[in-house]
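Suppose a colleague, Dr. K., hands you the sequence of a protein chain of 313 amino acids and asks what its three-dimensional shape might be. Before reaching for any lab equipment, you can write down a predicted structure in C-alpha cell form. Begin with the sequence itself:
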Amino acid sequence: MDTRKALDGQAIALMLVLCMVWGLQQVVLKATAADIAPVFQIALRSGAAAVLVGLLMAVRGERMALADGIWRPGGVVGLLFGLEFLLLGEGLRHTSASHMVVFLYTAPIFAALGLHWKLPAERLGALQWLGIALAFAGIALAFLGRSRGAVAEPAQMLWGDFLGLLAGLAWGATTVVVRCSSLAKAPATQTLLYQLLGAFVLLMAAAYATGQAHFRPTHQVWASLVFHSLVVSFASFLAWFWLLRKYLASRLGVFSFMTPLFGIAFGAWLLHEPIEPGFLLGAVPVLLGIVLVSGGGWVLQMLSGLGLRRKNV
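The predicted structure, expressed as C-alpha cells, is then:
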C-alpha cells in the first residue's frame, strides 16, 4: 500500500527553496562555461558529492544494500542520471540557460506518463491529459514559433534546446525507475549515491573523450564547484529523494513549474540573456501543462473548494 501523502507546509516551503536552487544551477554552469566545460564541472561535482554522501552514510552506519537485486535499478538510475546531465552539459554549449531550464523541467510530464502506465495511484485524469496536450503544444511553439532574427545562430540554439528536452526525458525516466523499483523503499542516500557515481563515471569519460577535461581555476570556478557539489548535488538531491519517499510524486511536481520561472529570471538578470517572444509564447503553455499534469487533482480540489465557498456565501 502506498503511504505517500499530499503536500503540507513543510513540503511546500522545501520545494520552493529547491526550485530556486535548481533554477540557478544552469545559470551558474553557463556563467563559468568559458573557464570550465559544463560536462567536466558536472562530473567533478558528482564525484565530490558522492564522497560527501559516502561520508554521511559512514557516519550513520549505513551500508549499500545489494539484496533483492537493488543494484540493478541502482545501475539504471545511475546511467539515466549521467545521461541527463551529459545532455544538459552539451546543450548548454549551444543554447541559453533560460531555454535549458524550461526544456529540462518538462521532466514531470514524462514522469507522469510513465507513472500512469506503471502505478494505479498515479493514474492521469482528464485535466492532466489536457495538461500533457498543452505542454507538447507549447514545446512545438517554442521550437517552431521563433523569428529568425531573434538569435545569432538559430540552428545551434534549436539543437541545444532539443538536448535539453532529451535531458528532461531522461530525468522523467529516472523518477519512474525510482518510484517503481526497490529503490522506492531504499534510503535516499543510497539512491543518490548510485546516481552520483553513474554521473561521475559517464561524464568524466565523456569529458576526456571530447577534450573538455580542463579548466582555469578562477575564484568563480571554485565558488561554482562548491555550490554545485555541496548545495545542488548533495543537499538538494537528498532533500528531493526524501520528499519522493514521503509525498506523492505528482503533487511534488506541481511546484516544478517554479524552477523554469526562476531560471528565466536568473538568466535575464545575471547573464543578460534575451527572452524571445516566440520562445516565451511556447514556454507559457509548457508551464501551465506541468501544473495541470503534476497537480490535476489538487487543482480540481481547489476549484471545488471555491465553488462550495460561493454556494455558502
